[in-house]
Design a protein that fits this description.
The structure is a single chain. The chain is an all-alpha fold. It is built from nine helices and no strands. The longest helix is centred in the middle third of the chain and has 20 residues, at 84-103.
């Protein structure tokens, strides 16, 4: 009986250690208007899967695991009223972001430096109270202009979006810009 209790306590401690070290949802992976409650809930649901992605698990196997976890949580009413579409979107974004950072760590380090300099004024403005959404639109324009200095949104971003003449830019640049601006908004 004593050995059984020791085994149970060991398993509980091991599981609590695994849960407490689970990866966080990247702030730039959230959908617009997502509350902190959803972040916390999603981290507890799929943090283990995100840990596996950080250690090399591919996107599709990770998404299959996360899908099952989120789907089961929604069906068993453990999501505080948040629906599958919202939670699945956050899960897909987080898995994609971690997978991309795993595959291109040097590129992300380079982007952090480049965009911190490029967006320095906007980051300061957001810290001082500027609206995040306005700042993010301005950041997009700065990123496009860094790829093509002749880009002018008043001319190139007119009409139906399929006719926009915007420069090709890696989506990671926008994700890093979102993270930098969101961190500035939250005071980090």
């Amino acid at each position: 009986m004593k050995k059984f209790r020791v085994l149970i306590v060991t398993v509980i401690l091991l599981l609590s250690a695994i849960t407490s070290n689970a990866a966080e949802i990247p702030i730039e992976s959230a959908l617009y208007g997502t509350s902190n409650e959803v972040y916390t809930m999603m981290e507890s649901l799929i943090g283990g899967v995100l840990d596996e992605v950080q250690n090399g698990l591919g996107y599709q196997p990770a998404w299959a695991k996360a899908h099952r976890i989120v789907y089961d949580a929604v069906l068993s009413h453990r999501t505080n009223g948040h629906g599958y579409a919202e939670l699945a979107g956050i899960a897909r974004n987080a898995i994609y972001r971690y997978r991309d950072m795993y595959l291109r760590p040097d590129y992300y380090a380079q982007l952090n430096g480049k965009l911190t300099v490029l967006l320095a004024d906007l980051i300061t403005d957001v810290r001082n109270g500027k609206d995040y959404y306005i700042a993010y639109e301005e950041a997009q324009t700065l990123i496009y202009k860094s790829a093509n200095p002749s880009y002018n949104p008043a001319v190139d971003k007119v009409g139906d979006f399929c006719y926009w003449d915007i420069p090709a830019v890696d989506g990671a640049e926008f994700a890093v810009a979102r993270r930098l601006l969101l961190e500035a908004k939250s005071g980090n």
